[in-house]
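Q: Predict the assembly, please.
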Amino acid sequence: MTRTRWTADDVPDQTGRTAVVTGGNTGLGFEAARILAQHGAAVVIACRNAAKAASAADRLRALAPGAAISTVPLDQASLASVRAAAAELRARHERIDLLVNNAGALGAAERRVTVDGFEATFATNHLGVFALTGLVLDRLLAAPGSRVVTLSSLTHRWAAVDLDDLQSERRYRRDAVYSASKLANLMFAYELQRRLAAAGAATASLAAHPGQSRTEFTRDLGAVQRLVYSDRARALTGWAMQDRAVGVLGAVRAAVDPGAAGGEHYGPSGPLGLTGHPVLTATSARSRDTAAQRRLWAASEELTGVRYPLGQLAA
Ligand SMILES: NC(=O)c1ccc[n+]([C@@H]2O[C@H](COP(=O)([O-])OP(=O)(O)OC[C@H]3O[C@@H](n4cnc5c(N)ncnc54)[C@H](OP(=O)(O)O)[C@@H]3O)[C@@H](O)[C@H]2O)c1
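A: Predicted assembly structure:
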């Protein structure tokens, strides 16, 4: 039965399970890590800044006494860092039950490239996710009932992924490139689910979006946009923005609700999907274009050099 108001109280006991949350040092990732830890999961936060990670781990231990909290360095904008993070996760964990692909960034006003030579937003938000997931997939496959949850955005609805210009060399506009990366997240999540199912794997791939949630997401924008996303503006923005502890529930539901299934997408129930508790949510026709998903997958394999162990079994 679909609940109309799914809350953190609906999270089943996660004792004995291991969850990896990327970008778990702040914002939605921190809230996901907190909720999972408070329900018994051993949580690894994968973060690019060691000091922020250590501080977040301390705060998580205080909020979830007794929970096993650890950190792993991860910069999704660097394939070497993604490979190192995956190697460390694989060395430490024989099984990973949940991978929450949360880390992401809005990107810079001007086009930038990563150490690998990729456009930075596409690399951080999509290629890093693609590579990390593929490199730890065997650990997910080893865990019964495991799930991969990838964070998308409402903005995917207006986006298009230009498969002939994935590096935005012809045209770069921050908002459009960010939105396209979030559409790519959805295309990845659905294609991964298709490949998992075709291979007969029990691991499921789902997606979620947080509506508009107050986080540090606008950190690189102007003072007004930073204020709009801040807790200080809560009284003014309540009609269109929600607290991150609620915004993250779509991702948490996708990760742990026994009624959720691979290929599903969860988001806020309220008007325009901006706020509210999570429900099953439709995504754009472009996100469901299987031919485009396959092309993006092939390009992502080519660019990252990561081949999923399911590849030969997929349709
Ligand atoms: N807030 C919203 O309304 C909203 C709406 C739609 C979608 N989302 C999605 O939700 C996810 C979380 O965003 P948020 O709102 O919680 O933003 P946030 O507060 O800015 O947190 C973003 C997290 O991602 C990490 N990150 C950024 N670039 C990274 C990189 N190269 N490698 C590793 N980690 C990196 C950040 O690390 P540092 O702290 O070290 O920078 C931080 O932990 C993102 O995928 C975003 O696209 C958010």
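The chain has one domain: 13-307. The pocket of NAP is lined by residues 23, 25-29, 47-49, 52, 74-77, 102-105, 124, 151, 153, 182, 209-210, 212-213, 215-217, 219 (CB under 6 Å).
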